[in-house]
Amino acid sequence: MFLDDVSKFLGDLFRPKPDHITVSSAPAPAKTLLPEKLPRHVAIIMDGNGRWATGRGLPRSAGHAAGTEALRDIIRASDDWGIGALSLYAFSTENWSRSKDEVSALMGLLLRYFNSEIDELDEKNVKITILGDVEGMPQPQREALVNAMARTADNTGLRLNIALNYGGRAELVRAAQRLARRAVEGEIAPEEIDEAAFSGELYTAHLPDVDLLIRTSGEMRTSNFLPWQLVYAEMVFDSCYWPDFDRVRYLKCLWEYARRDRRFGGVKGQAPERANSEEDAN
Prior knowledge:
Layout: H1 2-13, H2 29-32, E1 41-45, H3 49-54, H4 60-81, E2 85-92, H5 100-123, E3 127-131, H6 139-151, E4 159-166, H7 168-184, H8 195-199, E5 212-215, E6 234-237, H9 247-259
Parallel strand pairs: 1-2, 1-5, 2-4, 3-4, 5-6
């Protein structure tokens, strides 16, 4: 009986989805928030899939499968509402230490997601960028990721950044090594290395810094996610597990962000220039 319930649950998740998802209680922010009040770049730590499943007597893999439904809706909402860039923490370098079965399930979901969603994402002009060590992924997943980036490279809509096999400190070390290599080769002088040069060697080069970080599951830490890019981000922590995060909760986070007074170290009433303003997300 238990296995039948799990099978039905997973079958429901992977049925064909409607072209559009709407939530009547969550109107588009364009109707309720001024465009200038919206964050240009939202980052989300999608946490709590395993605990969501465990609380329902299901395997952790079922939680990750349920999490893909929330993922679809939030990506569509970000596109519908005019968010310029959305960065999602999907799989960290530390996640390889999880059980073999859980990692295998996650890799399978990743492959199915890109195979099933790439047509819609491309049609909606979404540009996909993978943040992290793509070469360290298993071959089928690596090929799917490289294909998704190549196929959407010229798109000019939502910048969808998915952190896979990603570690924030590793990203900083990688940037330092790349700059050191350029200096050794005479391409750049050490004194020319500034914040802009360093930012240009990150996975997020040509993107604005993160304006809003959202983390679900009630945990209140950044967990090695985008340490450079989050330096002035506003942070909102939602107590729900990721599979339960929907447009209503997303809109509440955007409203919370809009109420914040962002001074960037300045004085109230002043409007300091934001980092990377020359490279707005499209």
